Each structure stands twice: as structure tokens, then as C-alpha cells.
Amino acid sequence: MAMVEGILDLPVEKQIFYAVLGFSWTVYLWEAYLSYRQRRTYRSTTQVPQELWKIMDSETFEKSRLYQLDKSNFSFWSGLYSETEGTLILLLGGIPFMWDVAGSVMIRIGLGSEYEITQSLVFLTLATLFSAFTGLPWSVYNTFVIEEKHGFNQQTLGFFLKDTVKKFIVTQCILLPVTSLLLYIIKIGGDYFFIYAWLFTLAVSLVLVTIYADYIAPLFDKFAPLPEGELKTDIEDMAKSISFPLTKVYVVEGSKRSSHSNAYFYGFFKNKRIVLFDTLLEDYSPLNKSGEPQPEQPEREDTSNESKAKPKNKKGCNNSEILAVLGHELGHWKLGHMVKNIVISQMNSFLCFSLFAVLIGRKELFVAFGFNGSQPTLIGLMIIFQFIFSPYNELLSFCLTVLSRRFEFQADAFARSMGKASELCSALIKLNKDNLGFPVADWLFSMWHYSHPPLLERLRALGSIKQD
Ligand SMILES: [Zn+2]
Fold it and tell me: Distance from the CA of 312 to the center of ligand 1, in angstroms?
């Protein structure tokens, strides 16, 4: 009680500051508790549970258990680091310090503080550089120690570093012009600036979605059209059967980075494209051809005689399983999940900009984070969207996770209605195995984090496992 009164006696800007810090640690501790529960599950479930006997052998089970345990331990340390770093930045006034550094860079190039947008861009560049450098050791460790140890990493250090630099440059090329236009719109927008700002971000996200796959993703990965053949015809037939306006099917060389597998589609209106990771395709995946030596296995020249040529740890799905996976993906489209997600995120963004318009004039928000004199708009955006909205953001992200699981069940049911239930089941089992997913989860952890329902629940819903 005394402590609460003590906090209430503080000036309002101090109250805001400690509330933000306190909430951040509350979320951190909650997440740490959930991860602890999940790690406990990894540690204690050392035998394949009976209900999984048919879908997972004990060797794969143990492999995935150790992989997930390593990943969880890693995210414990990286989470602790980033929470501590964030707290220190706030306590030591890192944000106003970097703003001042940006100000002195401005003076060097002969510009005064009246050029707020330019100073904001300098600030943003410094801030993203800072986080790129502090994040680098963590992502190097994740890729070259953890993923490597469990056989997923396919990158060389040179490729990784080049890729990181490229990603940084491409991000800056998008971030800086978009931010400067947004700040300009807020500056000149008058009373209804939040409507223009929202419309602008809406336009930017639509443009990015449109150009991403054609102009941005190919900067990083090789996309090749799926060769003519049975799989391609089958995919086209399936698309036609549900009037999906398919224009092209690509295979992306995901195996260059990692052996995790995936499939997705993109595009607006009548121009939709499907992308398959090469790691998803049994006959296409380089993982089945080169890489790990498999001395007891013959070269996989004749795919006609599968039983003879199948390497022991062959990865990926066969054609009918790939079609089932695509049946699921197309279910997302047919059921309007994309559109629903876009509508939700745009409503949310409108709401946030409206609240931002109400709050941006409050000087105490700036004072709380060490801006006693000036109130730069960019800093206002950071404080309000990131710190002040954080309880709301947490709640929203939980609701979206719940919604996503619902959508996954619906897409599975759609594939089932296309008569692909058993192929989808075997694809899910294979993918879970290839990606070393652990099929047992703590209920609270999975409720909070899992955007996809646990494997067993999906198999049950698809009818492959009888309810007891
Ligand atoms: Zn899905």
C-alpha cells in the first residue's frame, strides 16, 4: 500500500515511466513463466506418449525434444538480454541521447534542429544500426550453433553476413522514405491528420504486399517456375476446381538457407501465385540429392522405383501430400482468411492513429521519456505505439493467435472437404518430422503462443485419430 501511494505521489511523467517499465517486466515475467512450463514439458516427456506411437518414432521424438529444448534455452537468454537492454536504454535515457547524437550529426552537415524530419531519419538510421549490431551475435549463434547442431543450417558465414547487410540496406531503402513521408503527412495534415496518416500506411502496406514477391523476395532467394509435369498439372487442376485464379507456380530455393519447409501463395485479385519451398518437395529437394553423405544409398536417379531408391532420411512430401498442403493453403483463400486479417489489421491501425491524435499533444508523455524541451513526432510515434499501447498490443496479439488457430482448423476442414484428409495427415506428420516439431505442449504455453494448433489436435480434427 505504501508503495502504491509512493508511486501515486510521483509527478505524472514519472508515473507513466514506471508504469511502462513495470508493464514491460510483467509481460516478460509472464512469458518467462510460460517458457519455463514448456521447458518442463520438454524435460519430462522423454518417451513417446502412446497416442503418438503411430506417428512418431522414438528417435525422431528424442531429436525434436533436444532441438526444442535448445531453442527454448536460447530464447530464455536472448529474451533476458533484450529485456535488460530495453530497460537500461529507458533508465539511462538512451532515446534522448541518440536523438542528441542525431542532432550533432545534423550540425556537422550544417542543418539546424528546424529540420526535424531529417534529424528523425538520422536518428532512425542510428537506432536501426544499433539494434542490428546488438542483434547480430544472437542471430549468428542461433544459425551457426543451434540450427547447425540440429542439422537445419545450410548457410555459410559469408552468405549469412552478405544476406544480413543486404537485408539492412533494403529495409533502410523502404523505411526511410516511408517514415519521412509519414512524418510530413502528420506535420501538414491539420486536424484530421490521423486519417491521412492511416490512409498512407494502408497504401504503403498494399504496395509492399504487391511488390514484395516480385521485386523484394527475389533479391534474397532464387525463384524458379515449377517444371511442367504431373505435379504442375495437378496443382492447376485443383486451383481450377475451386476457381482459384492461379497464374504461376514457383519453387523457391529455401534449401540454401535452411532445411525447414513451407508453402504459401500471394497476389491480388486475378493474379495469384503459389510458392513451394524446394525443401517441401520430395523429388525436388536438393537435401535428398547432395549434402549429407548417405553411403549405403544408391544415387537417386530412377525415381520410378521408389522403394529401392528412397534414402533413409529422405525429406519432403510426395505429390499427393503436396496437393493436400496446397488444399489447406487454398482453403485460407477460399474462406477469406486473408481479407479478414487485412480488415482486422487496418481497423486496428485506424484505431491506433486516432488514439495517437488524442495523445500526441500531451507533453508529459515526452517528459516521461526524457524529452523535456522538444517533442519530435517520430519520438511521439515510438512512445505511443510501442510503450503506451503495449497492454493493448499484447491483448490484440493474443486474440490474433486464437483467431489464427481457428483459421487453421477451418483450412484443414476445407482440405478435408476436398477429400484430402488422409494425405494432409501424412503431410502434417512428415512436415512435423522434417522440421523437428515437438508434438507435446504445455496447454498454457500453446494457448498463448501457438499460431497453429498442436499436431495431435489437427490430426484428430481431420479424423485420422479416433477420439477416445
Ligand atoms: Zn494454414
Answer: 29
